[in-house]
Amino acid sequence: MPTITATADLTGRDLLDRILHRLAEAPHTASDPLANPPWLDEYRAAARSDALSPELGQPPSPHRLDAPDRLLLMAAGLIEEDVRFGALFAHLQHPLPSRRPCVGLLGWLLADVSHTVYDLTGRVQNLVRRGLLDVDNPADPRSEWVVRVPVPVWDLLRSGRIGPDALPAGLTHRSRAEFPPLERVVLCADAAATVPRLPALLRDGSVAALIVRGMAGSGRTTLLGSLAAALDRDLLVYEGRPGDDTWRLFGALASIGDVLPVVRCAPGPGETLTLPRPPGVDQPLGVVIGRTGGVTGEALDPALTVTLGACGPAERRGLWNDLGVTGGTADLDTIVDRFLLTPGSIHRAAPLAVAGARTAGRTAVTPADVAAATRTLDRQSLEVLAHPLDPLPAGDPPVLTPAAAAELRTLAMRCRHRERLTTAAGGMRGGLNRGVRALFGGPSGTGKTLAARHLAATLGLDVFRVDLAAVVNKYIGETERSLDQLLSRAEELDVMLLLDEGDALMTRRTDVANANDRYANLETNFLLQRLETFEGIVVVTTNAGNRIDPAFLRRMDVTVDFVPPDAGLRRRLWSAHLPGDHRVSPAVLADTARRCDLTGGQIRNAALYAVLRGLDNGTPVGDEDLVEAVRREYRRTGASCPLPDHAPARA
C-alpha cells in the first residue's frame, strides 16, 4: 500500500476516504487480508456523506449500531487489517506512544478539522460499555484514550462471521447447520407439545428469555440450536460468571451478530443466580440450566421455561437407528431396554459401538458393543466423587439366605422393568419414576457389597462406589452440591451407584439445638428430596440401620436384610472360596462350618490365607492350612477358636 502523508490541507475525512479508496482499488486474492469486505461501499458512502458530522454529535443509540458507530469501529480497527496503519497512527498522534488510535485522532479522522473531539466521546463510551471497544488507558484524559476493537468483534464486522478460533474460553459459536430441524429434535412428550410454538414467541418478542431445564445430555443446547436455525440464526453460548470481560464480549457479539445468545449456568441446590441482561442485547435470551437451582434478573422478564425429561424407548430406538446401530430385533430391543441413556450420550456412544462391531468383523451391533462404548464416555466428573468397582461374573450369584436371595431377585426384576413399570402403573398415585432405590442392611461381612456388584453384572451396568470423603464437606451447601452432581451424572450415564455405609448421610433428623443441627437436617432433607426424583439405580448399604431416618426407609423400593450365615450357608461359602483342587477332608470342612460362626467376609479372608499357605508350601490346601487360617481369623477378632487340634499346624 502506498505511503499516506497527512498535510495541513488534508482533512481527516479526506484521509479516511483515500484509505478506503486504496483498499477498494487494491488487487485482491481469496487469501488477501485486505480483500474487499462487504461493508466497504457503505463505509465509503458514510465517509463522504455531508450528514456525517451532525450525526456524530447526536446521543448514541444504546442498542442499535448505526452508520457513525460502524465508521468509528472501522477506523479503530484498521490496524487489524494491516499493521502498517500502526505506523500511520503513531505518526499522526505523536508524542502519544501508541500504534493504536486515540479518541482525539479518531475525532480528526472522522470529521472536519474544526470538529471538536467531544462529539465522539459519548459514542466511544457507549461502544466501550457494550464491549465493542476496549480502552487501554481509562485513567487518562478522554481525548488520549487509546481504543481497540476486540478481535472477534472485528472478524464479525469485517466478514459477517464469528471466527471460533478468536473466541476466549467460555464463549462458543455454533453454526445453525450443526443442528437438526426442530421437528426432528428428540423430546419427551410434555416438551413436544410446547416446542412448536416457540419460534413464533421468540420472533415477535413475546418472551424475554427461554429457560430450558433438564439433565446434561437431554438435548437442551440442541433444542436452542434448532430454534435458532428456525429463526435463521447461529448459536452463541456463554459459560462463566456474568459480569466478567467475556460477558462484555458475549454481549458485543450478540448485539451485532446474527445469533441467538445462550447462557449456560449451573447453580447448586437452593441457589439462585442473578442474570443481568448482556450489554447492548435487546433480543430474547436462551438459558440452559439443570433441574436444580434457579435464575432471576431483568434479562428474564418475562421468561418461558421448558423442562426436558427422559426420552422414552421409541425415541431411543429412533436415535440408535438414525446413528447406524442396526442388528437383530432382539439385540436392538435389549439395547433400548437396558441402556436408558440421554440423547447426548447416545450420540456419543453410537459411533463407538458401530466401530467396535466393525473391528470385530460384524455388521450388527450387540449390547456388548454398546456397553463397551458407554465406558468410554466422559466420566471424569463422576469419578471425582465415586470410583468404579471391578465387574463380577453374572452367572456366579452370592451365597445368601433364601429370603435375601428372593429379595435380590425382586430387585433385579424391578431394575430390568423400571421403565415399563412407570407406564404399566401410570394410573397409580405417588409420582412414580424410573428410579430404583434399594437398601442392603446387615452386619459387616455378610455380602452386601458383593451382592450389589452381582446385581450390576446381572443388569449389564457398571457400578460406582461413592467416596464419602469427597462428597461430605464442612462448608455449608457444598455437600448438597456434590450429591446433586453425583446423582445427576449417574442418571446421565445410566450407571449404578453404591452408597456404602449410607447411614453417614441418612442419619435421623434431630431437634434443632444449634446451627450444626439445623444444617445437618438440611442435608438430610435435600437427600430425601433428591432420592425421590432420582431416575437411576442406587443401592445403599449399612450395618447400622437403626441410625437411618425412617423417611429414607419409606422411600426405598426394595430392602434386603443380610444376616450372618448358618451352618449350611457357611459350608457353601467354604466350598465357594476354596480352590477346586483343595485336599480339605469333608469331615474337617463340615466341622469347621458347624463350629465356627464366621461371616462370609471372614470365611473369604480365611480361605485366602489357607491358599497362601498352600502356595508357600507348594502343596494343595489341606486340613492343616484350613485350621490354621480359621485360628488366625479368630485371633484377629480377639475371640477364642472353637476348633480342636485336628493336626499340628504348619510353621
Description:
It contains 29 helices and 16 strands. The protein is α/β, with parallel strands linked by helices and 651 residues long. It has five domains: 12-149, no CATH class; 164-308, 3-Layer(aba) Sandwich (Rossmann fold); 313-362, no CATH class; 402-561, 3-Layer(aba) Sandwich (Rossmann fold), CATH 3.40.50.300; 567-637, Helicase, Ruva Protein, domain 3 (Orthogonal Bundle), CATH 1.10.8. It has a six-stranded mixed sheet with strand order 3-5-6-8-4-10, sandwiched between helices. A six-stranded mixed sheet has the order 11-13-14-15-12-16, sandwiched between helices. Strands 1-2 form a two-stranded antiparallel ribbon. α14 (313-322) crosses α15 and α28 crosses α29 (623-637). The longest helix is centred in the C-terminal third of the chain and has 19 residues, at 515-533. It starts with 11 loop residues before the first helix and ends in a 14-residue tail after the last helix.
How would you characterize the largest beta sheet? Answer: 6 strands, mixed
Structural class by SSE content: alpha/beta
CATH topology annotation of the largest domain: Rossmann fold
Strand order in the largest sheet: 3-5-6-8-4-10
Low-confidence runs: 1-13, 26-40, 46-61, 112-118, 647-651
The CATH superfamily label of the largest domain reads: P-loop containing nucleotide triphosphate hydrolases
Helix content bin: 40-55%
**Number of helical segments?**
29
What integer is the average pLDDT?
81
> Proportion of β residues?
5-15%
* N-end to C-end Cα span: 95 Å
- Kindly provide the name of the CATH class of the largest domain: Alpha Beta
Task: Give me the oligomer status.
Answer: single chain
* Net shape: elongated
In total, the number of domains comes to: 5
CATH architecture of the largest domain: 3-Layer(aba) Sandwich
The overall strand count is 16
Question: What is the alpha-carbon Rg in Å?
Answer: 35 Å
